[in-house]
Design a protein that fits this description.
Chain lengths: 329, 395
Amino acid sequence: MSAHATSYRDALREAHREALRRDPRVFLMGEDVGKYGGSYAVTKGFFEEFGPERIRDTPLSELAFVGTGIGAALGGLRPIVEIMTVNFSLLALDQIVNTAATVRHMSGGQFSVPVVIRMASGAGRQLAAQHSHSLEVWYAHIPGIRVLAPATIADARGMLWPALEDPDPVVMFEHAQLYNLEGELSEAAPVVDIERAAVRRAGKDLTIVTYGGSLPRVNEAAAALAGQGVEAEVIDLRVLRPLDWDTLVASLRKTHRVLVVDEGWRTCSLAAEIMAGLAERAFFELDAPPARVCSEEVPIPYAKHLEDAALPMPPKIVAGALALAGRQA
Amino acid sequence: MIAFRLPSLGADMDKGTLLEWLVRPGDAVKKGDVVAIVDTTKAAIDVECWHDGVVDTLLLEPGTEIPVGTLMAVLRESGETAEQVKAQLAALRASEQATVAAPAPVPAAPPAALPAEGARAAVSPAARKRAAELQIDVAAVRGTGPGGAITLADVEAVAQAKPAPAGRADAMRQTIAAAMSRSKREIPHYYLGEDVPLTAATAYLAEQNAGRSVTERLLLAPLLVQAVARALQRYPELNGFFRDGAFVAGTGIHIGVAVAVRTGGLIAPALIDVPRKDLQTLNRELLDLVQRARAASLKASELAEPTITVTNLGDRGVRSVFPIIYPPQVAIVGFGRVVEVPWVFDGVVRATPLVTASLGADHRVSDGHRGALFLATVRDLLQRPDELARPSDGP
């Protein structure tokens, strides 16, 4: 199959369909994933196609169904657990942090938990403070799990299968604003890794590091910057844990300046970790203090203009980049 | 307002690169103070300011290459306020923009403020590392980053402004080639030579040096230079410049002394106002000048102002030299090696120390007759060394 137009949502759906067909141990569970077709319609049509044994609607208890998924993984299955948003995943933190992430260690390597837990995250759809947060860093903090943030259609299509093949728990974040992202997919099933960050745009003047839903905003900002003669290199982290420091350091060696764009709040953010890690690894490459554009430190507002003001939107990214490059905004 | 512009540091100079400012805004400057170091193709030159004032604004960053005449800084005269200077500078720039098709490159924004005295200069880690690699002292680098921080680009700029020694030798060769080609292309030289007995001069120096330590001894060279200077007082048409089709007499007698530079090439900085100096002073100044020319630390006025050049082959030379004029000067005097020859005095042959003096002169300005009288005067003056040793108060 040659290049074809698709969307992030359709690419994810195709990835799930492939996984369900390839491996009979794979099944899917979560709130409204079956008859309703998923809160973000990722699993639309699956209930009819694969039946109630493999597409399981669950009660409204993240603690219970995430725990069930972990148990199923321990028992030899390959569950995909969908949580409606990262905000609700906090109810399952005990299962993920205290159980899934620790079993390999506490059993001396006798057991592993090959579960994939997917969830939507991020703001921008006027869903207010309880449905809009970006808490990726809460999971990226935890040893024992791998954290993914597909930000492109190719990654949406390609990351699920290697995540299922990982013998340890994988948490995958799908930014709610990306589902409607449309574009070309060059191959039916692109092979992608879940190890490396990706350089999405090459540049020499500064490095902008981002992930997930901020990637389209950073790309927009980078295009605007190019118009002003500033060439930004854009790095999509893709994997939030473990971080791919080699790619980050290589870029910094080229540009000597780094701006991190992170929809999380700045205090104790992933941006903070990137800045600290680069200062540790490549201090003598820095030609300016590392900088970041993050969300304002407020619960994400409902009102559209306030929500936009709280988020790292392209004008803020452009201003941050120009200041870092030593140029007037 | 005093406008400080890049002076011409020699007839062959049309541009220079600012290496370093030695003053900062707010510094008081006295006439003759060295305010900047400018790199030319020949050497890094200390540039003086010829007005009293207070530095208001430095308009150029080190590393900038600029044409001669470019406005480099403005100074406040006594009683002037910063606002007045600002207004005058704006007016000056407006008029220059209006009259000059291609204005000199000056940065639009004033340079970032230097960090306060005693504060640690902000240097980015990458800039500090690069400066160490390039052996550049970051204290000499001017920062353009946030808050005046020194960035990688600032260090690279200084590195580029500092050409490698090999590059300087090449550049000097090119400069000499250009000047000498121009001389031989444009100037109709005539040449004269005269043997000058130095019995009196050597006897005088021996007497003077009898009680002196080696380092304080008077040399022959300053006596030769002084003889040329005193002769020029009588033949002023050999002292000056040929500019725009006419001779312009020099103001004062400033004698350029050709100094061979160890890395190759030649430089001819000036001894200023030679006739007004006694021999001991001239001796000291000449030694100092040669030393500084070889160390490439000359002052702008010393390079810009020679009104004639003397080339002295010295002990390791040969009998005579046919010197080529350094444009736009109009004459050059050469001295060969001092040799002892049989010489007839009053019908008696005596062993006599002798030097051959030669003159290369611009026939557009003077004729051989006047040139011969000048050279004969040099010869005669050298027979009365005690007169040469005293300062002259003549013209």
